[in-house]
Amino acid sequence: MERQLKYFFDFLENDKKLSENTLQSYKRDLKQFKRYIEACEVHYNRVKEEDIKDYIRELEEDGKKASSISRCIASIRSFYQFVLKRNKIKVDPTANIQSPKIEKRVPSVLTSQEVELLLDQPKDVDLKGIRDKAMLEFAYATGMRVTEIISLNIDDVNLEEGYVVCNKANKQRNIPLGTMSLKALTEYVEDARDILIKSEDEKALFVNINGTRLTRQGFWKIIKYYKEQAHITKEITPHVLRHSFATHLLQNGADLKAIQTMLGHSDISSTQVYMQFQDEGIKNVYRKAHPRA
After folding, report:
1. Of 29, 58, 147, 293, whose Cβ has the fewest other Cβ atoms within 10 Å?
2. What is the distance in angstroms between the CA of the first residue and the CA of the last residue of the chain?
């Protein structure tokens, strides 16, 4: 992809005669998209429409404005139209992509009981069960995005201090691990991971049964499997666990700014969407106690 991007940027600069500011916007958008698909282990000429949609959802989760996302889509579309003309791809994955709506969707969340039911499904009786238990506990304990979780290396986790270091682009954030998550993760690292990996050079924290880094699709399938095992009718995705993490923290009194930091939101307005899920009991106390409620 690096070579095709160079050709594309040369085309924009020399043939289209774009201004320096516009050219830099294209470069920022496409280099960020390149990092994303590389983290997902998807080659640029194998990107599908669903991959583009997943990327848009991640931009929304990161608090990007609709105008910024529309610009990103335009940049990606221009690049794929360029490589399509150069016969590097057969189908343009952006052909049916629409710009995002301005209004934000209400995130789907699980109740505390549903979370307990889901996390109780993996049984630590074999290597896969130990791994799956650790992964689900980890996803709910940290609220990390699926691409961030599968990109983690073993060295990003500090089991002694009980936290994980998440590196996203040029930003880094430390997220604490709860007791249950730390216990499950320690068991996985000490009793299962070393057996699953085929090479000591493997750096990935979570690996598949072949001993290599788990993919985004693999993570989704695991969650879907345990959702069905738990007989939960709600749709459950890694993002639903992320939403549930934030909502339950807020309901139990966590500071909104702290939740923003843990989620990695660049804009607090993205975090404020969870305010609507605050415990009804808190609202009732306010109504009864405040003189002007």
Report:
1. 293
2. 58
Question: What's the CA gap between 272 and 277, in Å, rounded?
Answer: 10
Confidence of residue 262 (pLDDT cuts 50, 70, 90): confident
Average pLDDT, the chain: 87
Q: What amino acid is encoded at 278 in this protein?
A: Q
The verdict on whether 239 is a catalytic residue reads: yes
The one catalytic residue among 64, 131, 145, 227: 145
Choose, from 26, 44, 55, 274, the residue flagged as catalytic.
274
Comparing CA positions, the residue from 48, 12, 50, 46 lying closest to residue 29 is: 12
| Backbone torsions φ then ψ of 168, nearest 5 degrees | -130, 115
Is 274 part of the annotated catalytic residue set?
A: yes
Separation CA 126–CA 123 (nearest Å): 8
Helix, strand or coil for residue 43?
Answer: coil
Does residue 26 contact residue 12 with C-beta atoms inside 8 Å?
yes
State pTM to two decimals. 0.61
Nearest to 239 by CA among 94, 92, 53: 53
H or E element, residue 103: none
Helical (H) or strand (E) element with 239: helix 238-251
Phi-psi domain of 41 (left: phi exceeds 0; alpha: psi -120 through 50; beta: other): left
In sequence order, what are the beta bridge partners of 153? 204
From 27, 168, 183, 203, the catalytic residue: 168
Catalytic (active site) residue 71:
no
- The domains located in the chain, with CATH, are 2-85 (1.10.150), 112-280 (1.10.443.10)
Residue located via tokens 């201004």: 19
Give the pLDDT band (50/70/90) at residue 274: low
In the annotation, is 242 catalytic?
A: yes
Per the annotation, the verdict on 85 as an active-site residue is no
Question: What are 163-170's contacts with CB under 8 Å, separation 24+?
Answer: 164/138, 166/142, 166/264, 168/264, 169/32, 169/35
- Respond yes or no: is residue 145 known to be catalytic: yes
